Amino acid sequence: MPSLSQTGRLAFMGAVGLSVGGLLGGVGPVALAGSAALTAIALAWVAAVPLPRRMRRERLEFTWWMPIRPGHVRRPDEPVTLRIAVRNPTGDVLTLGTPRLALSPGLRHARWKGARVIVPPRAVATFDLEVRPAHAGRHVLHGAWMTLSGPLGVAWAPLYFPNPIVMEVQPRAFGGASQGRARPMPERAAALRSGRAERRAGEGSEIRELRDHQPGDPLRRVAWAASARRGKLLVRETEDESQTARVLVVDVSATMRGDDRGGAKIDYVIELVAQAARQSVASGDRLGLVAFDRRVVALVPPGDGAAHMRQVVQTAVDLRAIVDEDLTDVDEDALVETVARYFREQEGVDAFRDATASEGRLRLQRMAYKAIEHDPLARAPIAERDPVLRTLRAFCRSRAIALPLKHDDEGGAKARGLALALKAAVDRSRESRTVLVVSDLDAVGDLGPVKLALGHLRQKRHRVTFVAPAGADFAGRPPSSMTPAERARRDAVVALYTGEERLRLDDMRQRLAAAGVGLYLASAKDPCARWIRRAAAPRPR
Fold this sequence. Notes:
By secondary structure, the chain is of the alpha+beta class. The chain has 5 domains: 3-48; 57-169, Immunoglobulin-like; 200-240, no CATH class; 244-321 and 409-536, von Willebrand factor, type A domain (Rossmann fold, 3-Layer(aba) Sandwich); 332-398. Helices cover 39% and strands 23% of the residues. It is built from 15 helices and 19 strands. The chain has helices at residues 6-25, 28-48, 51-58, 174-179, 187-194, 224-230, 265-283, 306-318, 332-347, 357-372, 387-398, 413-425, 448-459, 484-514, 528-536, and strands at residues 3-4, 61-65, 80-87, 94-97, 100-103, 107-109, 116-119, 124-133, 137-149, 155-169, 200-202, 206-212, 234-240, 245-251, 286-292, 296-303, 434-438, 463-469, 518-522. The strands form 5 sheets. Strands 16-15-14-17-18-19 form a 6-stranded mixed beta sheet, with helices on both faces. Helix 13 links the parallel strand 17 (434-438) and strand 18. Helix 1 (6-25) runs antiparallel to helix 2. The chain is elongated.
């Protein structure tokens, strides 16, 4: 429904004052003038009611896109230009208010205050806005609300333009992992860096594995006999004695999340993975990734080269959008209602209108599939038994609709997941690996499975180091609208939380030390290189 503009509200209050004053003072002409003004305002408001329908009938066009610079990678906190074009097919001059954008939680938009967009008859008006992504991952601009001025500028009719745009944002350190090339490093330097000699992919005599041929691989490394048997080009991966094999084991559970403005622990983890990938590209070392919650969520075996590092970084970025049935705390009905509400609000379509519950679900599945059928992310595997719900979960991941993750109150599920992740980090390894575990260790009550896994790793001469993101930096930034009293109460709560967190991690440090493993606390400003050096340094006896 239309709403009165600021001019309309002032005119309305003035007309009411004239009417009331004229009636109380017994001045008929004044009361009559006030009544006439109220009637004019009401007529102007009524005339604005059919404007949205008329604009749909006249096909008022709203288009937006993001200008792309060749080779540019979007990163957190960098402004992204959003170009908007409005085409007026009518013969009237249209006055529109600046858009109010429907964004996913990780995007910020500073709306122009008091600005207007004037679209001449049968012309196109183009203007730019800026949005800022708060963290790496997928962001979606779902649509935009705009208001259209009615007669005399008294009332504004609301218009909504659904036009989803996907924005992929990479970590700040992504450039080195995506564009850099491995620089050869002397064996002595690599040995000093890791504390001992490790195997390195290179021109050694021992074959590590056969892999698919990639652009840039020299012909002398092609395994011609194996390629003939497989019917595709395969390349020999050999080893020498100077490469370090590192595996990052990262926690992606519910306790690592909570802040959509880029200050969550999961964002710190993603940036650490990107930094480690960039460092591995520069040094020629191998890097792997294992992500866990109550089970192993993602696994990238150790590898080297820029293409492999891009895979590691992208896997870490995708961990922000977990929609699996066993990891999310959303039941069947709530999931269906979430997707159905999106279509009602976004497209104005109710999948359950004049349909039974089962027919409505099938209709909703077809709508969701049609909306995401060309999205590569929607084809990624999802743990869900019901095919209808699997499509709805894929739709939520594609549209950046966050589903709440399950919390483990007893502390056993996450501990078992960590133990499985430690075993997966060194599975089938023939060399000693450096394993860096990044977890807040919250809701890890039973360390029994973890200690068994650590004992297995130490027996195989793997090096394990724990790093826990902790401190007030991860509590989230306070809203600017807070009053001093509210800010003081928030600071008190944060101080209480961080104090309890430090006590819990001090206890966990002692328990891990008994298993021969060190635990370090990381602030949001600590770089990954610091923890990699700490993990590779020889331990005192």
